[in-house]
Amino acid sequence: MSILRRTALLMLGVLLSASLYAQGDLPTIAPSQLPLPKGWQLAGSVSPTADGSSMRTQSGNTVLTGSGAPLALLTPTDDFRLRFNLMTTPNADVVMTLPTGQTINLGKTPEMTRLMKAPGLWQTVDVWYGTTGSTGRSVLEKLALNGVTVREMQTLSNNKLGPLTVASASGPIAVRNIGYRVMMPRKVAQWSSPLSYTVVEGQFIENRENARTRKVLKQDTTSVLNYEVSYGQPRQFTILFTGKLNALQTGDYRFDLDQGGVGGLWIDGKEVIPTSHRELGQTATGNTTLTAGPHTVEVYFSRSWFRPGLGLFVSQAGTRPQPLHAPASLPEPDPVAVISVNPDYHDPMNQVQRIRSFVQMPGEKTKRTHSMSVGSPTGMHYTVDLDQMSLLQVWKGDFANVTEMWYERGEPQLLTPLGETIYMSGKTPLMVLESESATWPDSVSANTLQYKGMNVDKQGTPTIEYKLAGTTIMDAIKPNGDALTRTLTLTGAPSGTLYCRLAAGTSVEEISKGLYAVNDRSYYIRIDPKAKVRMRQSSGKQELLLPVDMKNGAGSVQYSIVY
Length: 563
What we know:
Number of helices: 5
CATH topology of the largest domain: Beta-galactosidase, Chain A, domain 5
Structural class: mainly beta
Distance between the termini: 27 Å
């Protein structure tokens, strides 16, 4: 197995990314408020024509679509964060022009081509921009495509502030869900008097009331929050800080606490950030509403075996978090190697990577403990649950982050994708239903589905064998051009009418015969146009079902996931 260890210093990524940029969702810009250049129009929904030369539109004002002249999304006056959804067509050549005039081609550079979704699907572009940096020049702090960072901390060549635009000189494109927020360096609060602190004996005390009963080692005051007041004390200590913080205006405030050890935050006696044990860089966040004026702030810190440090940030919507601690109080976290696994993208014949691991799906309280992730040199990857034979997730780009599996004690033993994850329904693909309207089961038992093993070809691609409802199934998922193609080959005599659930989601839209868009054009399902597919509403979701045609004890289903 080819294993790449890539060292990622967490200085900016951990200390800043969670604190400086996480400001909740971005206020949206109504597309109708933007000036429409020649070649652009407002629409309610769009979809590319079959040849990609134009967009079919429906009336409305939530989407902008066009080509030719650049569409200005904003003209900044300060640091900002921008997010928008983008849809392309096969012939589109999408160029984003930054306020300083630099251009970025969103579909023609290698690092972006691998992450771009198929034409006709919605994708997400995130831009974090500093209009002036430490060098006095503007900085592209971060550019992310479909959730994956492709540019970071790039100093730009001049300081002019023109509009940020998107354009396509060839095929049409569409833009929607434009969110924008100014990130001002404005001060929102300040200490109105020195903080009192008490250092007590004992470390790793998770209960603040317990700490107050311990032997006092030192008491004094400090002008700002500062872990270094512990200097000269033995390693076994805990600190309780109390001070008055003056909120400069009435409103909602966000606090970010970063500590190497045990820490918590209270304001006016109310717990804002619960006590927790964390490493440096694992920021905890709390939100509260404050009136203008002074408020009693209590910060708790108890040393543990983690590298010590303590930092507290405060912010309001549209401001960069402001430190309430001394710079030396919060050291940079220790560099942690990101342990990743990748096939060799330059050699399509290189062996496919297979990793068994735990996987945690969004909204699920328990881990999927019998999961296998398969990484292909084509850059198209997936995870399957071997207990349910359910396809859990697919993604493009790099393969797998296995740091939480292999670093130190390997807890919580989770594999995470290195590209934007598209989540599937996560349920068994085949089932005997009493009728076409019967509810698809949430899960099946080991008595219903028996895993029998797998066959692996010369490139390492697995075909999994299992038994279900009186049939033996061979299940193979392989990259095929712009898609992952799943082939289910069945033998035997099923105990009733067998169905294959091709997709389930908040929406399933028929684009053309044999092509369906799922979850607001998050991905496509492509199947033989002659297949007798059924669309139905069940348990609050739209589903795409296919009755399995068994003849002489044999049958098969083949469909593709395009993303």
